[in-house]
Amino acid sequence: QNMNIQVEDIRLRAILATYRKRVPVTEGYVEVKDGGTWKQICDEHWTMKNSRVVCGMFGFPSERKYNAKVYKMFASRRKQHYWPYSMDCSGNEAHVSGCKLGNQAGADAEKNATCAHGMPAVVSCVPGRAFAPGGHGGFRKAFRQEQPLVRLKGGANTGEGRVEVLKNGEWGTVCDDNWNLQAASVVCRELGFGSAKEAIAGARLGQGMGPIHLNEIDCTGFEKSLTDCKFNTESQGCNHEEDAAVRCNVPAMGFQNQLRLSGGRNPYEGRVEVLAERNGTLRWGTVCSEGWSTVEAMVVCRQLGLGFASHAFQETWYWHGDVSADSVVMSGVKCSGTEMSLAHCRHDGAHVSCPRGGGRFGAGVSCSETAPDLVLNAELVEQTAYLEDRPMFMLQCALEENCLASSAANTSLTSGYRRLLRFSSQIHNNGQSDFRPKNGRHAWVWHDCHR
């Protein structure tokens, strides 16, 4: 084996017309960039294990067989340029660079190789449910699965997050001892993504809460679920500073080309402009800001790969976007927050309705790579909750601040009582940045009770 063989780049090129029109591309020639030229790989020694690795790299959980006859007919009509090396994968590699690469039999590395008894290697991949072509409703369920045993939390982008496992009805985290690409890839494939791009240790995508279910995980990379791997249920010596996370390979959907931020001071902010079809032509335009909120802004930031939404703006007069894109082309946008693209949120379609118009009232966003993630400690609330009867004269301030039920206005201040639910609360910030109230201290309204 030649250990000096480098894979510059690799792609899956759709050959048949059926697949050229589809997004994402799930079937075609495997081509390797060699000296600036794209070359095919001879399929004489190609295996389904090789296909599995290639599919994983392009964001697909598994491989499948294809119609070889059609490709043989196609290959016989065209001259091919073959890569002079062979590839031998075990099937659990996260990237082809981890496979054994060697000289193809009879090939001269300086010249084009031949493939006398074969044709260009073809790979056909099975997309995860959220990425299946034609199933637009599936895009809304990128992070949802029926009865999942594993989920990703705290990630800004699709296919990344802290790994959490469901055990005995309770979600818990995974300790990063022995955490590697094989284990991370099992998680990614289980959730409908490809192999793992990165196995992240040290709670770099935020700390979780509750129990640590799994420790010292040992996977072969072929398991259907993380819970099928060998692991230690004892979490002694582990804490949430060691929570494991993943960043998965995700199919190229082209979502980033359908939307842009314009006029901002930096690439992370600006007026939202979308590419929409109007009267048979594609044109850029603004999004109506009526009802625009942080939820919609989160989808925009995710679609552009810019992280989390820190602000959603309903006025953007201070950001001069593209003048030719001032017209509103999208209105009535309402997202659930899990969509991968703004186009897959509910909206008015071609029947745009925006009384305030675009221009200065176009929707805008400000994105951030990190964000706070506030979580209430519900267990503490349950443990400390109790009922208490308090006389009205001790609740004067609460009454003035409208913190009591409306019926309290008819209760005697000298002899009346109110029954209160008392409890302690604790808020954890599991995110990667500090939490700060939206308004600065200068904008806070203080009342006499707090002076």
From TrEMBL:
It catalyses: L-lysyl-[protein] + O2 + H2O = (S)-2-amino-6-oxohexanoyl-[protein] + H2O2 + NH4(+). It comes from the Eukaryota. Its cofactor is Cu cation. Disulfide bonds join C89-C99, C219-C229, C335-C345. Its EC number is 1.4.3.13. It is an enzyme of class 1 (oxidoreductase). Keywords: Basement membrane, Calcium, Chromatin regulator, Chromosome, Copper, Disulfide bond, Endoplasmic reticulum, Extracellular matrix, Glycoprotein, LTQ, Metal-binding, Nucleus, Oxidoreductase, Repeat, Repressor, Secreted, Signal, TPQ, Transcription, Transcription regulation. PROSITE patterns: SRCR_1, SRCR_2. SMART domains: SR. Residues 12-126, 150-249, 259-368 form the SRCR domain. The keyword Nucleus applies. One of its GO terms (biological process) is chromatin organization. It is found in: Chromosome; Endoplasmic reticulum; Nucleus; Secreted, Extracellular space, Extracellular matrix, Basement membrane. GO terms for cellular component: basement membrane; chromosome; endoplasmic reticulum; extracellular space; membrane; nucleus. InterPro entries: LOX-like_protein, Lysyl_oxidase, SRCR, SRCR-like_dom_sf. GO terms for molecular function: copper ion binding; protein-lysine 6-oxidase activity. The lysine tyrosylquinone cross-link (LTQ) is generated by condensation of the epsilon-amino group of a lysine with a topaquinone produced by oxidation of tyrosine. The keyword Iron does not apply. Belongs to the lysyl oxidase family. Mediates the post-translational oxidative deamination of lysine residues on target proteins leading to the formation of deaminated lysine (allysine). This is Lysyl oxidase homolog. It comes from Crypturellus soui.
